[in-house]
C-alpha cells in the first residue's frame, strides 16, 4: 500500500517539476521530495539523482559554482551560502544517508562533517542529528574494515577509527555524547 502512495507521489512531483519548469523553488522542493520517495522505495540510485538535482538547483538559485572550491576560505563561504537554503541542507543530509546505504562511507562521512562544520544554525537544532549520522557512518567503516558482530563493536575500535580519520578527542566525545547521552 505505501509503495503505491510513494509511486503516486513521485508522479505528482514529476508533474510539479513540469508545471513549474520556470520556477527554481518549485523544482527544487519537488526534486527533494522525489528523492525522499525513491529512498523510501529503496531505489538508492534514483534517490541520489534527485537529491543531487535539488542541490544543483539551489546552487543555480544562489549563483554558486557547480563544484566545491579548493581554497578553505572559499569553501567555507560556498557551504555557508549553500546551507542557508533549507532544501539544500535537507538534500545534502539525505545524500549522506543514501551514500552510507550505498556503502560509500568516506563520502557519507564527509557530508556529515560539512553539515556539522558549515550549517550556521545547526549548532542548536540539528547538530546532534548530523553527529549521530557521522558516528553511524564511522561505525559502518569499522564494521567493514574489521571482523566484528554488527552492533557489538568494541569502543576502542571506534576510537581508533576516529583518530585514524583525523578527529581530535573533543570531536569524538561530542559524537559519543549524542549517541550515548547517559555516559
Overall description:
The chain has helices at 2-19, 24-40, 44-61, 72-82, 86-101, 105-118, 127-145, 155-164, 169-179. The model has no long low-confidence stretch (mean pLDDT 90). The longest helix is centred in the C-terminal third of the chain and has 19 residues, at 127-145. The radius of gyration is 18 Å and the shape is globular. It has 183 residues and is mostly helical. The N and C termini lie far apart (41 Å).
Query: What overall form do the CA principal axes indicate?
Result: globular
Q: What order do the SSEs take from the amino end to the carboxyl end, as H and E?
A: HHHHHHHHH
**In oligomeric terms, what are we looking at?**
single chain
- Helix percentage range: over 70%
Helix and strand composition category: mainly alpha
Give the overall pLDDT as a whole number. Answer: 90
Strand content: under 5%
Contiguous uncertain segments of 5+ residues: none
User: Major sheet: size, sense and barrel closure?
Assistant: none
Distance between the termini: 41 Å
Number of strands: 0
Rounded to the nearest angstrom, the radius of gyration is 18 Å
Instruction: Output the number of helix runs.
Output: 9
Amino acid at each position: 500500500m505505501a509503495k503505491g502512495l510513494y509511486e503516486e507521489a513521485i508522479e505528482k512531483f514529476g508533474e510539479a517539476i513540469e508545471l513549474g519548469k520556470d520556477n527554481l523553488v518549485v523544482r527544487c522542493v519537488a526534486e527533494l521530495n522525489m528523492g525522499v520517495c525513491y529512498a523510501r522505495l529503496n531505489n538508492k540510485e534514483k534517490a541520489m539523482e534527485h537529491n543531487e538535482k535539488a542541490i544543483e538547483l539551489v546552487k543555480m538559485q544562489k549563483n554558486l559554482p557547480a563544484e566545491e572550491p579548493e581554497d578553505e576560505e572559499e569553501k567555507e563561504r560556498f557551504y555557508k551560502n549553500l546551507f542557508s537554503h533549507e532544501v539544500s541542507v535537507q538534500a545534502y543530509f539525505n545524500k549522506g544517508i543514501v551514500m552510507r546505504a550505498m556503502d560509500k562511507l568516506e563520502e557519507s562521512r564527509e557530508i556529515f562533517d560539512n553539515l556539522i562544520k558549515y550549517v550556521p544554525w545547526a549548532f542548536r537544532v540539528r547538530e546532534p542529528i548530523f553527529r549521530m549520522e557521522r558516528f553511524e557512518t564511522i561505525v559502518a567503516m569499522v564494521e567493514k574494515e574489521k571482523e566484528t558482530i554488527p552492533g557489538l563493536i568494541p569502543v576502542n575500535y571506534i576510537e581508533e577509527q576516529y583518530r585514524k580519520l583525523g578527529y581530535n578527542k573533543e570531536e569524538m566525545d561530542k559524537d559519543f555524547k549524542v549517541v550515548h547521552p547517559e555516559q
